[in-house]
Design goal:
By secondary structure, the protein is α+β, with helices and mostly antiparallel strands. It has helices at 9-26, 31-45, 51-54, 95-104, 165-174, 176-185, 190-208, 216-225, 230-242; strands spanning 57-63, 69-76, 80-84, 112-116, 120-124, 135-138. It contains nine helices and six strands. The protein has a six-stranded mixed beta sheet, sandwiched between helices. A hairpin with a 3-residue loop joins strand 2 and strand 3 (80-84).
């Protein structure tokens, strides 16, 4: 999936908050009566004019061989299949139906599958793991954890799933010493490399305990690894905002608080 420029998280948070409010105020969670309206509003909240304009289809016929023809609630090749159930439904009971639809949606089978009961999103990536969702997301958390559905954006971003945060943090910590040695071998002064390591570890920790908006640091590092400027994203972006009094009002790093103490007061382009 191609990495695209970040959306304005402030606007997205506002749109998704309005979507949550709309669901709670106007929808009862009836699968057949309200699923299409719910999905239309969801797509609009992520920046689309509508489902049809995005290139997705509702009630797409899926030939499942001996099981006959079924109708998937929403198919958007090659991005996502969404199967809706009524409010309160145990989504685990409908895994096999969603998997069967996904299996037969060839060519251009969707990368992700979502089971949704109006209040929960169970997100599957069958190329990564078959039996368990890569994330479970309550609608109330959607405005702050939209990265889990970032593939729904008009210009898709790589999703950040919440179920592996602990494992990722442990893996990253185990590689801190190796990163430090690599920087020194590149000719970076030891004091400068040490400061960068401390800045990064603090950012990771702050992200995990939600002092930083969800996945702010992780997404910046991912984009850096894919070729974007480390100086623009980290030193001239995130770390600068972490050293600025107050809370970042808008833009990619919206909601970033001020980290007092001087750790981020000294930044360098030598590491970019």
């Amino acid at each position: 999936m191609t990495v695209q420029p970040a959306v304005d998280p402030t606007e997205l948070h506002r749109n998704l908050s309005a979507f949550v409010s709309y669901r709670n105020s106007h929808l009862n969670g009836h699968e057949h009566k309200e699923a299409s309206l719910y999905l239309e509003r969801l797509f609009q909240s992520f920046g689309h004019t509508g489902i049809a304009e995005a290139g997705a289809t509702l009630e797409e016929a899926v030939n499942r061989g001996a099981k006959g023809v079924g109708f998937a609630d929403l198919v958007w090749k090659p991005r996502v299949l969404i199967e809706m159930k009524k409010s309160g439904t145990d989504l685990g009971r409908h895994y096999q139906q969603a998997f069967s639809y996904w299996t037969h949606l060839v060519p251009d089978r969707p990368r992700y599958v979502i089971l949704c009961n109006f209040d929960e999103f169970w997100i599957y990536d069958f190329d990564a793991q078959v039996d368990e969702p890569v994330d479970r997301l309550r609608i109330s958390d959607l405005p702050s954890r939209w990265e889990a559905l970032a593939f729904l954006l008009p210009r898709p971003q790589t999703p950040q799933f919440g179920n592996d945060l602990v494992a990722v943090t442990k893996w990253t910590a185990a590689n801190v010493a190796r990163l430090f040695n690599m920087l020194v071998e590149r000719g970076v002064e030891r004091a400068m490399a040490r400061r960068f390591i401390l800045q990064s570890v603090m950012a990771m920790f702050a992200e995990d305990i939600r002092l930083l908006p969800t996945h702010t640091f992780t997404a910046a590092v991912t984009d850096t690894a894919r070729g974007q400027s480390a100086y623009d994203l980290l030193f001239g972006g995130l770390f600068r905002e972490m050293n600025t009094p107050g809370s970042t009002p808008a833009g990619r790093f919206s909601g970033t608080p001020y980290f007092n103490g001087g750790l981020y007061a000294k930044l360098s382009s030598r590491l970019s």
